[in-house]
Batch of 2 targets.
Target 1
Amino acid sequence: MDIAGTINTALRRVPPVTIYIAGAIWGGWLFWQAVTGSIGVDPVNILEREYGELALKLLVAGLAVTPLRKWTGINLVRFRRAIGVTCFFFVFAHFSVWALLDVQSLARVWADIVKRPYITIGMGAFLMLIPLAVTSNNLSVRRMGAAAWKRLHKLTYPAAILGALHYVWLVKGWPLEPFVYLGIILILLLARVKWPTARVAA
Amino acid sequence: MAYRWKNDLTRADATPRNLILNRRQVMAGAAGLGALTAAAAARAQDALEPNTFEEISSYNNFYEFGTGKEDPAANASAMVTSPWSIKVDGLVDKPGDYALADLLDGLTTEERIYRFRCVEAWSMVVPWNGVELADILTKVGVKPEAKYVAFETTVQPDVMIGVQYKVIPFPYVEGLRLDEAMHPLTMLATGIWGQPMPNQNGAPIRLVVPWKYGFKSIKSIVRISLLAEEPPATWNIINPREYGFYSNVNPTVDHPRWSQGSERHIGGGLFAGRIDTLMFNGYEAEVASLYEGMDLKQFY
């Protein structure tokens, strides 16, 4: 059996709920470290960052499922819903730490959303993900119909780009990491474009 | 001349460092149980208390050693800080390459407990040890034509990962107007908490200008130049719209991307919330006169 086949067989024994459990444990562990101070001297900022970056990583993972199957035959489609919903969980956690523990005032939260472009686009990405999280269940797929459901879930694409830009826009100078996320997300989106077949010049 | 300026920040009757730490640990535990009001109350009386040596030396911006806050503490130990000499040039009576000890010779090192406010909207209180910059400048003799002072940080590419990756232009340069440089609050620091300056904090000698955003307080200085014209400053070169030459702490002038009206005070823990940022970082009485008649929104 080929490598992809071996991996697919092995993955069949892993229930998708593993991803929810791992996400909850990891998120909870980070929060506990922030409470006890072992995460660093600026726990609000570090927690905000960690949750945000985890959300970006899971966005990348979710977007990678289709190209990975196309290019290598490894099939992670069974896990995609869990990846997406866990991603939303971390975006929500990221937003909550920012709103409740960092700025701590509804007026300032609103002022920042309106006034700070990087927060505006981050908020935009968050809002786009809400309908996706709400419809991430079989009942919604049945009610909406597969085609409409699929169309709605293409909102992941602009959300991912906005999420990456949100990171690029908030840093000082030119650190590597935010650009790596943006680059990978763009590659994964370009991999979905159906290019017209190239015509050979006569 | 030492002791020209009197501190209004105290060491809270010289609380030993280990006690401060213990109390914080207790606080952190209490906060974890949901005692938010207790945390806030303790913060209010904590505000003027210096941060621990550990906090001050583990959370730094020193892009030569990487852009992460923990990178300098992890990477800066390889920096060579001895022997150390500083090139003094430009409009001075006695230019030359000065050994650090010669530059400091005869000056009294004193402790100054200053607020420290980063442009990224976090802050600490730091007990610096050092001398007034004015004393050094007087020593080398400032010519009457001099109007500005320029500073330059060491570049040691072999041990500076940020320099290898060119995350920003190096060497890091900064500058002050001469009256700012001669102000009694402005100091050259050689230590914190009575200990030699940790490499990640800018060993062996760095500038401290407590009423300006932290990036003005240039680290690991190898050159001081007296000039007639305003010198370039690194963040101002990178993004002049976001980082002005003056960069005085000012809660009424926001950074284009974030508010400068409040700050996270390091050491408060997860539930401390933000505190209001003070005009000139709390040194308005001392320094506001330097900027009389200037539009601080234009000269940010």
Target 2
Amino acid sequence: MTTLPDRTERKLGLVIDLDTCVGCHACVVSCKGWNTQNYGAPLSDQDPYGADPSGTFLNRVHSYEVQPEAGAAQLVHFPKSCLHCDNAPCVTVCPTGASYKRREDGIVLVNEDACIGCGLCAWACPYGAREMDMAAKVMKKCTLCVDRIYNENLPEVDRVPACVRTCPSNARHFGDLSDPDSDVSQLVAARGGMDLMPEQGTAPVNKYLPPRPKDRLDQTGEIDVLAPFLAPVTDQPKGFLGWLDKALDRL
Amino acid sequence: MTQPHLDTSPPVSDEIRKTTCYMCACRCGINVHMKGGKVAYIEGNRDHPVNKGVLCAKGSAGIMQVNAPSRLRAPLKRVGPRGSGQFEEISWDEALTLATSWLKPLRDTAPEKLAFFTGRDQSQSFTGWWAQQFGTPNFAAHGGFCSVNMAAAGIYTMGGAFWEFGQPDWDHTKLFILFGVAEDHDSNPIKMGIGRIKARGARVVGVNPIRSGYNAVADDWLGITPGTDGLLILSLVHELLRAGKIDLDYLARYTNAPVLVNGDPKSPEHGLFLRDEAGKPLVIDRVTGKLTPFDQPGVRPDLAASHRHAGVTHRPVMHLLAERYLDPQYAPEAVAERTGISAAKIRALAAEIAHTAFDDPVILHREWTDFRGETHQTMVGRPVAFHAMRGISAHSNGFQTARALHVLQILLGAVETPGGMRFKPPYPKPATAHPKPHCKVTPGAPLDGPHLGYVQGPDDLCLRDDGSPARIDKAFTWDNPMSAHGLMHMVISNAHAGDPYRIDTLFMYMANMSWNSSMNTGGVMQMLTDTDENGDYVIPRIIYSDAYSSEMVAYADLILPDTTYLERHDCISLLDRPIAEADGAADAIRWPVIEPDRDVRGFQSVLLDLGARLGLPGMAQPDGSPTYADYADYMVNHQRKPGIGPLAGWRTGDKGLTHGRGGPNAAQLDQYIANGGFFVAHVPEDAAYFKPWNRAYQDWAVGMGFYDSPQPYLFQLYVEPLRRFQLAAEGHGSRQPPDHLRERIKTTLDPLPVWYAALEDGHADPEAFPIHALTQRPMAMYHSWGTQNAWLRQIHGVNPLYVPTALWRQHGFADGDWAQVTSAHGVITVPVAHMAALNANTVWTWNAIGKRKGAWALDQKAPEAEKGFLLNHLIHELLPPRGDGLRWSNSDPVTGQAAWFDLRVRIEKVAAPLRSQPAYPPITSPVGQGPATLAWKVET
Amino acid sequence: MHPAPSIIAFTTLSGLGFGLMFWLGIGMPGSTGLVAFVFFAIAYALAGGGLIASAFHLGHPERGLLAFTQWRSSWLSREAICAVVTLAVMAAYAIGRVFLAADWVPLGWLGAVLAVGTVFTTSMIYTQMKTVPRWRSLLTPALFLSLSLGGGALLAGQVSWALILLPLAGMLQLAWWWQGDRAFAASGTTMASATGLGGIGSVRAFEPPHTGPNYLLREMVHVVGRKHAIKLRMIALLLGYVLPVALLVLPFAHVFGLLAVISHIAGILASRWLFFAEAEHVVGLYYGKR
Ligand SMILES: Nc1nc2c(c(=O)[nH]1)N[C@H]1C(S)=C(S)[C@@H](COP(=O)(O)OP(=O)(O)OC[C@H]3O[C@@H](n4cnc5c(=O)[nH]c(N)nc54)[C@H](O)[C@@H]3O)O[C@H]1N2
Ligand SMILES: Nc1nc2c(c(=O)[nH]1)N[C@H]1C(S)=C(S)[C@@H](COP(=O)(O)OP(=O)(O)OC[C@H]3O[C@@H](n4cnc5c(=O)[nH]c(N)nc54)[C@H](O)[C@@H]3O)O[C@H]1N2
Ligand code: SF4
Ligand code: SF4
Ligand code: SF4
Ligand code: SF4
Ligand code: SF4
Ligand SMILES: [Mo]
């Protein structure tokens, strides 16, 4: 049902910490593993051992180099999956009703039984969050692990997305972003969580925490602040042993 | 229209089987979800001490490893020429009969003619024992080309180093400084630790020529020039000493800083410690002012006082150390240019270290008693933690650089204190508590003791009576006296050269030696296929065990196909490479969560079978029947000493089950499986820090069977065994080094850390080859064996050479361009890409992505073989010849660690070739090629 | 965007077919019998053929009926409905003209309006895409409609209308290119906004997420060389607009009619190829490509 709900009861989503993501691709592969085995058709791979291997992934980790005006270039690892937009253009373009946004939690899903594989929703998504599966010929996208987060066959701690559960550096956080008191909302507030491509008007639910300022040791002035910590104990060449003796007496 | 109905609680699996990951050597716990008897999904085990539930990309891709089309299917006998990849499948009985027929005569006449070397294996206590029973001195694992510098420097200095030996105190550290690490084996724990540190708002500093991965998330980055970390570290030491920002109390109590050094230049003991009759190092007690053994109750060792005797002044280590590092040659200004780090930045880092360590200590209110009997109310720590790996150790000055880093940590009082670096049981364990190397060969009988160990001086070298090396890899010789892990990278080269002697059979396990794990890959292929004047192979026989169709398979005469990691028993034992964390001793098993669908067998079981067929002691009963049915049987029933077996958990004691010491328990493996595949014994709270000197810890360790009696010891700022080699080089003692090595030994085996330029710089022309060339591990790929994985190879299918901005512009490179890269040894032609966050004199690429055509069941047009490449073609196992006729190994002169990262090159832009160069002819795949599509959903 | 032959063929041919239907619907020409049959057959072949071609693009054409359900939000759904209703209405109208020599004018007009509506809905599928700034312009429907009507007029032999509409379409085409070349920059979507990292410094894509190719790159990222694009634009302009008009103004326009049609179709195919191939999707930014 491709009209968007007026509002959703909750806004479940991910908060991704760009300050902490080491770019290990763990989330990429655990997502691949879980979703190959679960929701809908398996995520297939074409020419997997060949010259041009290519498969369906719902989450991919980019990396960018950022050159500040002064100082060393920085590298930022950048995981990207569906952002479960409030104003999801991928949903409204869908001719069949296969794409929909859930009223209860805001998760954007594809009902694969109704998907004709026209690809239009992938065109409509600015983030590249939808991929057509070449074997099943249906549109695949991040499900926010809807088959984990409510799954009573899983222990309660494990009712989080596969990518969140596996992220070794804890750069991925899952929760309700409509609740200002939730851990994720608190993180967003504290760390200045941001939207990707806000000008596209998609109103993404997922937020990104920007990298913290870097290279403090290069900042001039900083050194002066630190200098007292290195005040020499003595200026005489042989003075160190004298200092040692005195310092030992104080112990 | 309404939303479709969705089942949000689908069944996940029929059953979970808990075992240990082996997509790399980190050894995380995994939950293998089974559906219909097949592996459906793999996730981390939340209870596991290593990974606590998380799993890396490789671990999650395990399912694609277990179904990989490159899996070997049956034993193989070579039918084509070596290197062609032409084999016929044979039965196990035929294979083992053949192997026995080759090995038996060797054992009976000349056991050293078997060289048995193992690669990425985790059962060294078992394989080493096998080799010892066989009687050959020629055994080692891959540590020599991996990171022995880190291990040896740590053990000799403080009884352990990083990774398997120790870890940062993630919970308390406030400043974490990482030297030369892209990934390390502590793959998940480091990521978890960085995540925890960041969540607390503590700081991370990365010292690395390349700002990727961990260094990308570091708050500060020092883009150091490769090979110069020693200078940077000693400059930090210089600044801290000058400012008196060192932990004097800690140094006096727990290190050899107060130990007196013989100051008599005429004495044959010059530079050795003054000792009492019992051999205990002497200090001066501040309380009495008297000379006394360091460990007496109530002694307060004096760091400042020297001892004058017979006209000679014997000074404490602290004097020597201060004298050396206060020298202006270590001032930030003096090292800035060589390290590529500005003096201001070095000073800023030193200041931050000083501030964090001394103005902001961590104080835990836990009472503990030290080995001198003194009780302390609190545990005070210096919350600066370091971690380092191959970036500093894979250089020919790596041992001394790693030593320098350990000395820095110790000066801060940041080892085994809260917020610093903590050992993982069974470490700490000083060098003196390790065995020494053994090499006495007796035909038909076992070797006289374990192969590898920690020498204390020239007397412990593995030399034959004529002074020539006893081992094929020349470990424990004057070339590299402290080669605690052997030199796997020299085995093929030495065997081919017949230097020091010829061997008959090269037996290898899990090491891709004809490709990514060798230096001089092309040369090694040549050596493996070279024939003598009779047309016989120079290395007559090669037996190899692999699980997959790797490049190395093609070069063996007999292949013993292993299972995958989910199909066999494995033992991750406290006897060799445990999975312990600082708060607990832990070991683990693998067990067959699925049965192989091919005619393959677990290698360890095969080795036991072979051992029985050869009648090796401990493996064959007097009637010739095997002692152990298989490796599982060995894991449960073998005892190294009474009460000590491969697995520490659930042994039998007087009153039921016990841990640590105890008799075999027939149900042990079931207990492990029920517990998730691992065993952990938690370190008591009052034993958690100050372990080398903490009575509570020492007693606990004895109880666990790590040692037989408490072994408190001092950290060795000054390493006496090094000095013993120097003394020999100065002409003292009966065992003398050859003259051409004297000067090198004098400079490089310094008992206090020194920095010297990489050895390659003295052989190759730094002007002609001005650029450093490095490799890094990609987090989502494990050496060569990730490539067969359909999911992982999509992430890393090609590897460009990353070029820093200035060079990029200078050569006029654009995206898609290619470069010719030349070293003193070879030339490669490879694709380039631009990277700004990179040391200006460094180029680099991902390790082991390039593949040989025909390997790994991949299409011959696979990108890994077309565009992917290895830097290994540029790195030689020998240094460029100097015209002295000698074969100088490209290794650290102390430990023999392969100096991968000393490589220097020059680059030129060239027209794009058809594929990266050099290109080798394809090998025939013994397993065919993988399928055209995959959609791996397992149904119940 | 990937210039998929099926979609290029679909939009070009069905545009022409529905354009022709428009003219037939309003009785220009008002022929009956066999002549009408030929005209309607051409219209149906083009429109229907285009639709069939588009079905090749679907992963699951057998579920095609579902595509009629989401007319409240989806332009694709609206297009599907419009197309089918148009074909049905025009079929009834054609029966009158071909077999009964009857001209049910209101039905014809209804069909004509529907035909135009179909082309409009098609164009809106592209126009709505905020992700493809080049498409997101009112000029897109204007261009599609003028082409459809102009090409239809050409096919319908309405030379004087064709002589008005084709130059108009040509002008729109030029305007569309002019605007399109500036659209991405004007959209405000940049690497900085895509990554949120612009505040730190200038952003450059370092490593792609996978060294292997993927669906997104194949589908959304297509790079046309500048020289190549200019050449193709010239060809499109010449064949699609200039040559047909020239042929029509020559004496014996009828003789050259077929040539004009062929030239026009070839030109529009080239233009449509560029319509996709030159269209930069914002997702390319994540890959450092535009
Ligand atoms: N240029 C460059 N070269 C390097 C390095 C570098 O930094 N730069 N690093 C060096 C270092 S530190 C190392 S440790 C080496 C590593 O190099 P290698 O030790 O060669 O490691 P791998 O390529 O991972 O795998 C070795 C073999 O183990 C096989 N294998 C995998 N699983 C199993 C199994 O379950 N059973 C059996 N029997 N075999 C199995 C694989 O198929 C493969 O053939 O590379 C070295 N080479
Ligand atoms: N994912 C994954 N994990 C692995 C492996 C793998 O193949 N893949 N291999 C395992 C093995 S066998 C090993 S030995 C470990 C090795 O783990 P690491 O020690 O992390 O090994 P490398 O990837 O070789 O990284 C060496 C790092 O040192 C830096 N470096 C090089 N020279 C210098 C220098 O002079 N100074 C400084 N400061 N830095 C320098 C390089 O830029 C690089 O970042 O990883 C293990 N873990
Ligand atoms: S990220 Fe893309 S696929 Fe996901 S909801 Fe937003 S527009 Fe749709
Ligand atoms: S591909 Fe499927 S989900 Fe996407 S718009 Fe078409 S029918 Fe809807
Ligand atoms: S939430 Fe689930 S589906 Fe989405 S990226 Fe994470 S693992 Fe993949
Ligand atoms: S698992 Fe975590 S750290 Fe690794 S790439 Fe994904 S988000 Fe980043
Ligand atoms: S780090 Fe990854 S590959 Fe290595 S053992 Fe752990 S999960 Fe497995
Ligand atoms: Mo290694």
